[in-house]
Amino acid sequence: MTATDTAGDLPLAPEAREHLHLAETATARNYHPLPVVLTSGEGAWVTDVGGRRYLDCLAGYSALNFGHGHPRLLAAAREQLERLTLTSRAFHNDRLGPFCRDLAELAGMELVLPMNTGAEAVETALKVARKWGYEVKGVPADRANIIVADGNFHGRTTTIVSFSTDPDAREGFGPFTPGFRTVPYGDAGALAAAVDEHTVAVLLEPIQGEAGVVIPPQGYLPAVRELCSRENVLFVADEIQSGLGRTGTTFACDAEGVTPDMYILGKALGGGIVPLSAVVARRETLGVIRPGNHGSTFGGNPLAAAVGHTVVELLRTGEYQARAARLGAQHRERLEALIGHGVRAVRSRGLWSGIDIDPQLMSGREACERLLARGILAKDTHGSTIRLAPPLVIAADELDWMTEQLAEVLAAPRP
To answer: Is the pLDDT of residue 399 over 80?
Structure first.
């Protein structure tokens, strides 16, 4: 598809107006989506109810790393839909064991605890860390603390927003869960100063996604690893957005040769088809969970396990990781050329970028609306930042076209 196929103003089709009106009147307004109503997708492209096509440069916040309608993922889902979709964990199913075995192997770990959403997996990791602290480290009952980073985004449950530093996520939801300490992201010294004898875990995003694709200083993750090993503290890496090929390696931690004690995975693990998340760790860590301690009716269901197992198989070849690294380097070069031309800064790793728009020129929201009119889907965050996370199946010329459209948006005068 060429630029001329999608460029230009996009007045709302009557069908879109109807859908938007229905959503506004019947749906709680916990999101502020762009005014587009999508109905189908293939690869890196989606189509709206009026028949217009858009290049998807958000990919469901990395849930669609393998694109829309990946044939192998669809085949796995269809085949399993005809066999068995849910048993609950009251019984075994024949898809769970192979999925967990191979995911553990991909991560270099031993055990997997499957859940559904990313927030569920984070909550699971917090419970595991506390229980490990009491049973293995010997922390006195109810004294465990977990260290987190300023600017974090780990989900929106009551416990998770208790340690969020985003006022929109916190305001009106107290009282908050105790037991967390917040330090500046990327500051190994501040982290070391916050650790005490009751610290059981450090929970970090190797790259902060919601904050605007914030990459820590070189050497920070190895310093966290060394500190946690020295102080007998679990290093818990939230790779829900950064993991599974997005940054050019299987996990973002891989870029610095770091292996955490626990991976938290989600989004792309479900192939953009089903909610699927997991905590992956060694036996001495996850082994503290016993029957009755934790669970989920849908966690580890055979449909999700079948799709997740296929995701693991896709990643085993290294093809998608290499593609993200190669195309990401090309894309970063194009984006950095826009610095000083409406862009103040670019942060990029693999096919994941945070672009700070000059706020005197336009807001991030306005930039995304103008990109929408040109056939590109992107999302703003924190006022003036745009996040780009296209499917890893995107073509090089499609990436270049997207960058050209962004350049034109920034150069065009406001209407």
So the answer is: yes
Q: What is the DSSP letter of 183?
A: E
267 is catalytic: yes
| Element of type H or E holding 210 | none
> So what's the pLDDT on residue 4?
32
Residue labelled with tokens 């995304």: 368
Catalytic residue (one of 48, 66, 99, 153): 153
Query: In this structure, what DSSP letter does residue 145 have?
Result: E
**Confidence category of residue 8, pLDDT binned at 50, 70, 90:** very low
Which one of 251, 267, 298, 380 is the catalytic residue?
A: 267
As given in the structure block, the two tokens for residue 78 are 């269809």
Q: Could you tell me the two tokens for 60? A: 């469901």
Give yes or no for residue 1 having a pLDDT over 70. Answer: no
Q: Is 48 a catalytic residue?
A: no
pTM of the model: 0.96
Residue of 180, 281, 288, 294 lying closest to 235 (CA atoms) = 281
Q: Which of 48, 238, 261, 380 is catalytic?
A: 238
What would the two tokens of residue 112 be?
């997997």
Amino acid identity of 392? L
For 315, what's the count of Cα atoms within 13 Å in the CB-facing half-sphere? 27
CB 237 within 8 A of CB 253: yes
Token reading at 196: 């005490």
Spatial separation of the C-alpha atoms in residues 360 and 384, rounded to whole Å? 10
E strand or H helix at 234, and its extent? strand 234-238
